[in-house]
User: Fold this.
Amino acid sequence: MHLHPLRDRGDAEPSTDALPPSATSSRRDRRRRGGPRTPLPLLPIIAVCAGVGLAYVSQTAQATQANYDQTSLIHQQQQLTLEDQQLGSQLAELSASARIIESAQQLGMVTGGTWAYAVAPAAQVATPPAATELAAPSTQSGSSVLGEFGSALLGVFGGPA
Assistant:
């Protein structure tokens, strides 16, 4: 005795279309799989939450990269400071006067004695006669600079002397 003709053909589950219209709705609900459908208004909220999450991850990655860069720059600065100190001490050692004298003596140079200065007699400077007239102080009565300027103008333009 066969209760259901579809079971004989080997079908595991009959489709809902194969059910007779008089079947109860509870049987149709059991055949539906999955949860309730997502309402359309939740999709923008999910997208915004995903965007905020991506922005947070991006900012965290940038902060981590900046921290790494800062640490490496601090380490590099410390190395350069140490190298600067070493080069400064080498420069001080190489520019010491005792070392320079020692190197010069190894090359065959000798140290000089005391400094000697040669004193030359002062030479007499000859002046042309016209220069002596211009260099002589004026003996006119005008003692101020303005008076000297006025007398010079009178002499040039032929005024009374």
In short: The chain has a mean pLDDT of 76. The radius of gyration is 56 Å.
